[in-house]
């Protein structure tokens, strides 16, 4: 210490002493102004030490230190003069002791904010009475609440408007699809709205026009085929009757080779007439008005076997059916079963063909819901080419095609009954044809 200024003090006993280990001196030598925590003096008042560096040519060469009685200083007068009565101030040391405290008025419902000081290990707390700022807070709260409500109201109104608009667009599309379902092909819809809705509406209208054009072409094609079918069937039957009649006339007067040729002509005429009858049955199956109905398949199968046995008395036919077996099928299913049985008899390579026919109902143990009609024979079997064409594995062309309409009649009758048709090889030879039809609980 080089000098001491203090009233009524013995400077001589202190000047020249080393205070370098004091905290406030070290803080100042480090380059910061430092204010210590209050220290009780002998007089009973609190004293704080202020220390600041002394620089020469930028270098710290000394510190200037001073002791200040808090009770004799106006350090906090600035706080008292700048703050209203509704604001309170508290200065606290790092040890938790209050250096200065002035509560707000009124001293209730207080909000407090704190901040540390850089020059001292003190914390300044400013408290504000909510009773004073309450009206301002209420006004701000009401303003914010009103703004939020207004924003939500705008969003709700816009959302409702957008919802109603989208709902109208969706309803327009639904009405368009209902019109297509009811056969009003070519129906147009106007959904409007954004580009996305415009594209959807345009796509729907283009699809509707395409369907309308396709349906019109199919109807015209169906009408043409119907006309050709009627004309060809009528002409074919009439002309075949003429040919067959002439052949019978020749056969009745001819002998030898001429009679044989006449008999062959009669046989081919009968075959063509039979083909025409099958074509008519197929046309009936493919008719759009033909729908499956409950039928007792067991009774139908028994009738088919009885007729087949009467037409082929040398055949060994066996039938095994339950009392009833009701399935959903088109009315031509009996003709299809007859075709399978007749095919097994006619294509047998022996004079006494053996054909077994059975009908089985769905059982709980098997977990099936179909009625099965099974026809087994020991003939040469159905060619695999025929099976592959019917199953769609091979295309119908000049080399791979079904040799007759019989199996096509069976295939379409089963298919339009929502059933399945399977072909398997029998042991040691022959074929097993299985027709599966959806079971029903009631009869027609």
TrEMBL record:
Segments forming domain Histidine kinase: 231-441
Alphabetized SUPFAM superfamilies for the sequence: ATPase domain of HSP90 chaperone/DNA topoisomerase II/histidine kinase
EC number(s) recorded for this UniProt protein: 2.7.13.3
GO biological process: signal transduction
Xref: SMART domains: HAMP, HATPase_c
Keyword tags: ATP-binding, Kinase, Nucleotide-binding, Phosphoprotein, Transducer, Transferase
GO molecular-function terms, A-Z: ATP binding; protein histidine kinase activity
Superkingdom of the organism of origin: Archaea
Catalytic activity annotation: ATP + protein L-histidine = ADP + protein N-phospho-L-histidine
Domain HAMP: start-end pairs: 164-216
UniProt key word Nucleotide-binding: yes
GO cellular component: membrane
First-level EC class: transferase
The protein's name: histidine kinase
Taxonomy of the source species: Archaea, Methanobacteriati, Methanobacteriota, Stenosarchaea group, Halobacteria
